[in-house]
Amino acid sequence: MEPGSSSDSLGKAERVKGGVTTRLGSVLPNPKIEPFVPRFDHNPNELRSWAKRTGFVSDYSGGTETSANEKNDSALFDLENGLDSGNGETSPKIEIDPVLGRTRPNRGIEIEPVGKNERDGTGKNENQRRRTRDETKFHERKVGLNASGSRNGNAHGIANGNGHRNEVPEVAPVAEPKKEDGVFEIDEKIDVAYGEELSQGGWQRLSGMNYGIRENPGFAPSVYYGLQHYLSLAGSLIFIPLIIVPAMGGTDKDTATVISTMLLVSGITTILHSYFGTRLPLVQGSSFVYLAPALVVMNAREYRNLTEHKFRHIMRELQGAIIVGSIFQSILGFSGLMSLLLRLINPIVVAPTVAAVGLAFFSYGFAQAGSCVEISIPQILLLLVFALVPLSIMLIWTYAFFLTAGGAYNYKGCSPDIPSSNILIDVCRKHAYTMKHCRTDVSNAWRAAAWVRIPYPFQWGIPIFHLRTSMIMIIVSLVTSVDSVGTYHSASLRVNSKPPTPGIVSRGIAMEGFCSILAGLWGSGTGSSTLTENVHTINITKVASRRAVEVGAVFLILFSFVGKVGALLASIPQALAASVLCFMWALIVALGLSTLQYSQTASFRNITIVGVSLFLGLSIPAYFQQYQPESRLILPSYFVAYAAASNGPIHTGSKQLDFALNALMSMNMVVTLLVAFVLDNTVPGSRQERGVYIWSRAEEIATDPSFLSDYALPRKVAKCFCWAKCLGV
C-alpha cells in the first residue's frame, strides 16, 4: 500500500543529565496529513490474518519468516536506540496493541534518566546494558523488523540508511505530549494495555493462575496439586456408583468394584485426552449426562422382577449401549462433522442444556438426603461456605461415625443387617430406612473386598446389544458433545489460552468417544466425558498445569488396583452422598447458566429461548412420566420419573422404537437441547446478540508458537495423523 502521509525523521534525542524525561527537539508538532491512497495491486490470497490486511507487524507470532534482503536491511536496527535513520538520528519503535488498537511502547526502548553513574564508551550505563542483554533474547524471537517496508505494506515510514522506509502504521495518540519551551516531553513509562501482558509465548490474558497450562510445578507440587484436583471432583468420580449399583441389585462388593473401575478408566482417559485430545487440563470421568439414561435402562419393565444375576445383566446391557453410542461420537469427531456442527452450537444452546443435566435429578437429591437431616444439612452448609468437597466429606463422615458409635441409630430389637422386608416388628420396619441410609457400619464392602484387584475388560461378561438402548445412547452422545463444547471454550479462556480451533474441538470429541468405548469395555456403568465441574475446579485451585493433571491421573490408576480403596469409598453413607450430589447438581446448573456471559444476557430473544427451553425441558418429560400408574406402586418415588420408557404415550407398532422414543422424551436434557437448538437457529438474531462462539483459526497453529504448544499433538503422533487436517493437526 502506498503511504498516505509522510513525516520527517524524528530528531536526535537529547538526554538531560539527572532529569526524568527525554526531550526530543525536532518532533514536528503539526505534521502534514495527505489523503489516504489505497493499494490495488495486492493478492487477497496472501492476506491470511488481520496483521497482514492492516500492515501491522504483530508480535502475537513467536517468530516471523524474513527474506535475506530483509535481514540485510534490518542490520541498522538497534534494540535500545530504535531505528537508525542513516544520519545518526534515532526514532523509537511504535507498536500497536493487537486487541485494543492503541499505541504501546516497546519495552526494549524504554527511556530512563541519567543518574550519577557515568556512561561508558558505548553511551550506555550499567542498568541499560543489563536490560538490553535481557530483552535482546526476548525481542529476537518476538519482533520481526520490517526494514524495507516491502513485506507487510505499512502505511507510513521512516527512512533508514539504505534509502528504504521502515513502515509503521499511523495511529491516534493516547495523550498529547506536554510542550515546554518548544520541546516535547515524553513520559518515562507508559503502561501496557489493560488485560494483557507480555510472556514468552505471546500476548495473553491475565488469569491469576498459579501455574499455567504448560508449566511444570515439579514432582512434589504436581502430586499435591494433582490429587487436590481429583479430590475436588470426587462427587462425580465416586458417587454415581453409589446410586446405580444398588438400584441394579448389586451388592456392596459390586459397588466397590465399580468404583475401582471408574478410577482406572478416569485415569486412563484423562491421560489420553491430555496427549491426544484438546490437550487442555481437563479431567475425564463418569459424567452425570450418562446417569439419566442408565436409570432409564435399569428401570425397564423386564428388569423389575428379575432376581437372578440382575446386576450383571443390566450392566452388560449398559455396556453394549455405551459402546454403540461412543462409536457414533468418535465418527462424529474423526470425520470432521463436529466442525460443521459447531456453527449451530452457541451459548444459548449450551447454557440450558447443561443446566437441564443438573435439574434432571431434583427428585432424587434431597429425597435421599432428607432421611438423615442431622447429616445432610451440615454437609450442604459446609459445601456452600467452603466449597471444598473432600474436606467437608471427611468432617461429616467423622461426625456420622460418632453418631453411629454413640447409639444415635440404635433401636431396641432392631439390627441394621436385617433387610426391611424380613423385619416383622413394625417399629423396626419404620426405622430400617433410616438405619440403612445413616449408619456408617451398614456396608460390608470393606470386609468383602480384596486388597489387590485389577479391573479388566469384560469383567461382567460379554456386552449385550439392543437397538432400543443403542438409539438412546447415540442421542445422549450428542448431548455429551454439546456439554463438552461449552467446557472446552470456558476452560480455554480460564487457563490463559486462546480458544481452540474447530478441528481441535472435533479431535477432543473424537477422543471422548474413544474413551467412552474403553468405559464400555471395562464396564463402569456410564460413558466417559469431560466433567463440567472442571471449570469450577480450576477456579478454586488456581492450577491449570497439564502435568499436574497427568500426575494425578497416574495416582488414580494406582488407587484402582487397591481393592480396599474402592471398598472404603463404597462405605460412605447414602444420605451423605446424596447431600454432596445436591451441591454438585446445583453447581452444574450454575455452570451451565454462566455460559450466557458470552452472549447478550439482556436480549429479550435470548432470555425467551433459555426460559422456554428450560420450562419445556421439565414439562414435556413430566407429561411422558405420568403414563405409568403401576410403576408408582413398585419403584421408589425418586425412580418413577425414569420408568416412562416402558409405558409412554408413543406407540408406533415397534416395541424397540417405542421404548427409545418414550425414553428420550422423558429425559430433561434431551428435550431441552432439542428446543434450544431449534429456537436459536430459527429465531432471527445477530451474531453479537447470540454470542456465537469465536474459535481460533487453523492457520494460527503454524504462526503462533504458544498456540502450538497448547493444542498441537506430540510431534511423532502428529506425523501419523498429518492427513487429518479436519482435526487441527
UniProtKB/TrEMBL annotation:
Sequence segments annotated as region (Disordered): 1-44, 78-167
Domain of life: Eukaryota
Biased segments, Low complexity type: 151-163
GO cellular component: membrane
Membrane-topology descriptor: Multi-pass membrane protein
Biased composition annotated in UniProt, kind: Basic and acidic residues: 107-143
Transmembrane feature ranges: 230-249, 256-276, 282-300, 321-342, 348-367, 379-402, 465-488, 548-569, 575-594, 606-624, 659-679
This protein's UniProt keywords: Membrane, Transmembrane, Transmembrane helix
Subcellular location, record wording: Membrane
Primary localization: membrane
MF annotations from Gene Ontology: transmembrane transporter activity
Similarity annotation: Belongs to the nucleobase:cation symporter-2 (NCS2) (TC 2.A.40) family.
Protein's name according to its UniProt entry: Nucleobase-ascorbate transporter 11
